[in-house]
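May I ask for a sample protein chain and its fold as tokens?
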Amino acid sequence: MEIGRIKLQEITEEMQNSYLDYAMSVIVGRALPDIRDGLKPVHRRILYTMWEEGLRFHARFRKSATVVGSCLGRYHPHGDIAVYDSLARLAQEFSMRYPLVNGQGNFGSLDGDAPAAMRYTECRLTLLAEEMLQDIEKETVGWADNYDGTRQEPQVLPAKVPQLLLNGSMGIAVGMATNIPPHNLSELVDAIIFLISNPRVTSDDLMKIVKGPDFPTGGAIYDRQAILQAYSTGKGAVVTRAIAEIIEDKKGARQIIVSEIPYQVNKATLLETIAELIKDKKIDGVRDIRDESNKDGVRIVIDLKSEAYPQKVLNRLYKLTDLQKTFHLNMLALTENGLQPQVLSIKGFLEHYVEHRYKVITRRAQFDLARARERAHILAGLKKALDQIDAVISTIKKSATKEIAHAALCQKFKLSEAQATAILEMKLQTLAGLERQKIEEELKEKKRLMEELEALLKSPKKILEMIKSDLLYLKEKYGDERRTKIFTSPVGEFKEEDLIPEEECIITLTQGGYIKRLNPKNYRAQHRGGKGVAGITTREEDYVRYLACVNTHDNLLFFTSSGRVFQTKAYEIPEASRVARGQAIVNFLELSSKEEVNALVALKENLKNKKKGEQKTNNVATEENYLVMMTKNGIIKKTAIEDFANVRRSGLAAIKLTKNDELRWVRTSSGFDEIILVTAKGQSIHFKEKDARPMGRAAGGVRGIRLKKGDEIVGMDVIKNSKLDGKNEKQELLVVMANGYGKKTDLKQFKVQRRGGSGIKAAQVTAKTGQIVAAKILEAGEEELIAISQKGQVIRTSLVSISSLGRATQGVRIMKLEEGDKVASVTCL
């Protein structure tokens, strides 16, 4: 309905139409790149303005303000800040894999610093940008009026370079967005040539050449399968990581050095985030962090504390900061002459590039052919005139005017108007012999060129070969090595233990609940009877209660006095120096205030993951099948090892205890071994493991030895049956007493009895020796003894130096103790 010049319309329809017009204007005219040259309108206008201004690579730099002003006045009627920001990004080496603008001055930094004002910076085109614009004057692309109709601007650039994939693009339109990563030029060239030669290849085939994104900041990307998926569908996520290494400085302190960061990560913000996480205790073990980056590259230094585990700290940094970041690919670009937004695979992108270059080369050849024909036509006329020069001169002399002469030449010599005009404008010097020869040679050259161009236009194969030739030229001149490393495995498949070396280590646990891990090399071997070295700094009235030699990859089962069990990895225990106290075990285990860790068992992964019922039944066992537990009051229990395969963080019940009893020892067994128990007052009992039947975790166990009043168990060990491995090596029981005495005794002196009896004497306990504090069976390969006292003194001595004596003897001095000190724990290496 119309009223005068006013047209009535539903507001919903008007809003819909207006919004769609606005949306399409943003999509086509601002936010999304054209798939042909990979540029948004603002970037295309900037480059063309610089081309018009003559700002080539070898020209003098010109103020950025000049370029911005010219671009605004001629082609881009928007804000100057928008144009300058776009120009600055084209010059940033950390944003563009192959910059298109050569900038002089401050164009911003990885720390998020903004470029200097446009009046301070200067710019010109790079050589690669010139390749984008070459042949634009040969009608190779379409043209359109600028915003005020005073000039013509290119709708797209000839783009010899595959710019869209080369430098990528990022843009947010209305209802859609694009995020295309940059790539390596050499890989793209090889892929396009492969596609031209094999049009039926798949995106997966092309991805064997284009390995994935190649970011200007380097870094690493993970998961080959995810990369293939993203490039095949046009959408997907790729995990990127910084390049970091763990080193030791000159003083032996460990550092994490970050030399490359993920693409589009603000370095200053990254450092602030790390500092906040350290301050909030979300990342432990960091002593200092500083930025040592310079013009040569990124260098972030993270100094670690001595007790920190570097790989664990680095993994936390990956998890909590932008040192690991996901890049979401959305390969959306404008197709159909820049009018249709479309998500494409990598093959689709490369096919559109080849199609664009095919059209550009075709139009260039048509332009050159037209010009060659025009020139050849003129040259043919000049040659005809020179061949009849006297008659030509006579005709001109007889003509009254220039126009009459022009008409006479056309009529008499059968010349075209263009040829007649060229003859009238011909200089007398053309009559010289050499000049005549030049005209004839140029005419021949033009005819040869016309034949080549006509042949080119008739042969699609030759046009494709020319595209290949142009690409190989680009690769040779501008190609470089890939910066971003690619790992085929997903990040999630990297296990922490895969990055940790398997090595022997010592775990110590004090009465006060402090635990640490250290290298056995920290203790040098000494002769028996020596004083030893300081092994730990303990608090007053604290002493070392447990010492074990394990592998860093072992699963550690911690059994508490109340009969519960907890689990952790050996490498998760913080490494500390020889004299350090360590860290409180309550930081790792959820212990109650009334329970202590009394036993530790190291399980290999294959033992931990045993399936139920795998134990042997033929009296020959090659694996550990059971955990044998012993309490201080002489109760023994045997439980299948698979019952402890999945220990919760809050712990599991391992044994049911009676009042005033405590769980003290836990050992692994095959089911066909033998058990020996030793008491504080020197009694021992040796019986077959079969005497203790297997029980569930909730059971309480059976009697192992009958104790006299005031006595308790101080040692329990499993004797590996010699039938199991076919060996008949001598086996000995090591006994260590509180005042530093000890001895070895042949196991044959301990007869096999039934469990539950009072046993026989294992050592002569006197006031000089003190009560027995530890007893264990020596195993093959064990060569040295490490003993630690309640006050932290440690001695490491050869087992060979400890005498082998009978059962009812006092032993020899192993360790000289200070007054009031006692041996707390021993282990063998």
In short: The chain is about 30% helix and 25% strand. The chain has four domains: 11-182, 243-322, 359-478, 496-828. The longest helix spans residues 346-387.
